[in-house]
Amino acid sequence: MIFSTGEQFELLDPALGSPFATVQLSTSADVDAAVATAVRVAPQWRRFDWPERAAILRRTAATIRADVDRIAEVLTQEQGKTLKEARIEVERCAETFDYYADDRFAPRTEQREVHGKAAWVTPLPLGVVAAIVPWNFPLTLLANKLVPALAAGNTVIVKPAQTTPLATRILLDHLADEGLPEGVVNTVLGEAPVGQALVSHPDVAMISFTGSTAVGRAIMAGAAGRVKRLALELGGSDALIVDADADVAQAAKSAAVGRFFNCGQACIAVKRVFVHENVYDEFLDVLAARVDKLTIGDGRNPGIFVGPQHTDAQRQHTLGLIDDAVAKGSRVVRGGKVPADPELAAGFFVEPTVLADVPADAAILSDECFGPALAVVRVASFDEAIERANASEFGLGSSIWSRDPAHIRRAVEELQAGYTWVNDMSTDYETLPFGGMKQSGFGKERGAEGIEEYRFLKSVVGKEGQEVF
Ligand code: NAP
Ligand code: MG
After folding, report:
1. Tens-place pLDDT, residues 428-459
2. Is the CB of 394 under 6 A from ligand 1?
3. pTM of this prediction exceeds 0.85
4. Beta-strand relationship, 394-395 and 437-438
5. Which ranges constitute the DSSP H helices of 200-340?
């Protein structure tokens, strides 16, 4: 159910810079009503038979896939990503519905040995879970929370970013059409005040949040009063290391794709590159040649790789980081500004940008750059590369390109991040736990680990012979 009785909010098409729809935001009374509904429906959903729960998820996956064209179009219009990337996002979202519908995720009570007693450990849902999601991957980031939370038997309050509510709405309509009882999933919309009303609400048991580190801190503080369970997927500034003996062409390819997909707006985008001095010039040449081939434009047009940034504010942040890096002595290898093409003037575009010789005090190395600008740094040794890669408050992903087994082992052990890609593209996988360390947050999404975040384990003990399960 949608709980929105507040002000109207205008959505802008990022490629055109012009409004295309209005949505209604929620009030704190809407948050209360949404949570009350989720509380009321919680016992019904908790007792819902697993096979039927799983069947709803599986049918929803099929319905999403059958509707990929329409959902992708809506996602491109509200978010700005290319149609090709939007379709990939829709498909991945469907995969998550299938993944957690598997019978190995059915709740299972385990019998345990306690001398002279009957004893069990049984998984229970937490109750009402709030899923707060950003705008960069509205569907997959929601599915990573919503699907395991539902599979585990929780009711859910979804809060999409207010700038990307529309594809989410279609997704939730499909869930309802495939048999999810009314009130199991409820939606509210609005920025900080609505989010904080959810976070501090006494009847919300857990906050599962993906977004910036700054808001993550505010959520931790807001949840502290009632000691709520949290899962925080926060910002990232992933490093990619290019060792002296690396396959430079492949490393440059993975840096280009890893930096510029989704217009650089990904938590696990490659944001900082540390290149050994022996291969530094070669790496920059190959990277520049790759960037020259990146087509920029409206994501609805075929053949476009880099779309607009999601909002003008995001674009200004990226341009500010570029200007700061240049003022401090970085060399602009490619891009660095807004494109000159008059057809792109109204949209929120930034040229795909490569900055070389970026000095240690440039803000682009310490802040998260959530746009199409890559910082490249020359290092004199592998040790220096590891040290510089770890000199960040973030710890989400990391990559090592090397042929030296000892260096690869050290990178895996020493890089402070939840993922390390070894001579491979930086992308995340359905079956592997995803989540950061340091100020990138805590908790795991995806994989078998992802559903455990949404379960509470209760120990049950009775006299010998007592029957419960
Ligand atoms: P954001 O400002 O933190 O917003 C994320 C969500 O929180 C949105 O729904 C937002 O609503 C809401 N929100 C804003 N202030 C809030 C508050 N005080 N209390 C509760 N909710 C609040 O994030 P963003 O800048 O839009 O998104 C990009 C960030 O997400 C980047 O830092 C990126 O690295 C991170 N991210 C992390 C992962 C990961 O898995 N680790 C994945 C993707 C993105 P409104 O948008 O409506 O204001
Ligand atoms: Mg924000």
Report:
1. 999 999 999 999 999 999 999 999 999 999 99
2. no
3. yes
4. antiparallel
5. 213-224, 248-260, 280-292, 312-327
Q: For ligand 1, is residue 31 a contact (CB within 6 Å)?
A: no
Instruction: Quote the ligand 2 centre to 276 CA distance (angstroms).
Output: 36
Strand extents, DSSP E, 44-135: 110-112, 117-125, 128-132
CA 371/CA 364 separation, integer angstroms: 11
The atom of ligand 1 lying closest to the CA of 436 is 41
Nearest-angstrom CA–CA distance, 56 and 53 = 5
Instruction: Report residue 341 as tokens.
Output: 């093409």
Dihedrals phi, psi of 18, to nearest 5 degrees:
-125, 155
**pLDDT, tens digit, for every residue of 256-287?**
999 999 999 999 999 999 999 999 999 999 99
Which of 93, 263, 267, 369 is catalytic? The answer is 267
Q: Which of 233, 351, 445, 453 is catalytic?
A: 233
Closest ligand 1 atom to 396 CA:
41
Q: Identify whether 263 is a catalytic site residue.
A: no
Instruction: Quote the CA–CA distance of 414 and 248 in Å, as a whole number.
Output: 22
